[in-house]
Prior knowledge:
Number of helices: 4
CATH superfamily of the largest domain: OmpA-like domain
Number of domains: 2
Strand order of the largest sheet: 1-2-5-6
Structural class: alpha+beta
Amino acid sequence: MNFSCAAAARLAALAAALLLSAGCASQPGAYAVLLPSPGGGVGRVAVSDAGGMRVLERPMQATTLDRRAPLDFDVDTEQLARDFGAALAAQPPLPETLVVHFETGGVRLSVESARALAAFAARVRARPAPELMVVGHTDTVGTDAFNWQLGLERARQMAAILREHGVVPLTLSIASEGERALAVETADGVDEARNRRAVVTVR
């Protein structure tokens, strides 16, 4: 399966600025509230209705809807749970990406990456129907053909380790970029640890 840049951007925008509306006992009528993304970032949302246009730019900032005299206020966690708990609980989990790194010339993970992959696998197992894409990468040591094959072997190794951790994906895509998509630009023949990697995405 393919994870397009446009789809990723749409998901990031949804995470950064989730616009909600509902009836509320403590505030009159329906309202919209700006929520932070899971990573803590906050976007901006313009709300336009009969009361004119307002911009929400603070986390948990809210404004009433469809009123000629809008009321702006902040929502606390209790009110958010009361008004939107069911809607938030029904959202599918957001996509997650993990980058792991390898020792030189092979498919052996660094110690830190092995630990990170185990924790990632536990989160993937909690998803109802995970879809996985794994892309292997290399540094610039070796020929293009060798590095393409090595990238593919790294991607396959990641898929095998995830299976060992009990991950059973609904779909699985494995690919190699070899040395064509470097994380750090280097000259040919450079042993760069940050380029020896695999990128694992789940949605």
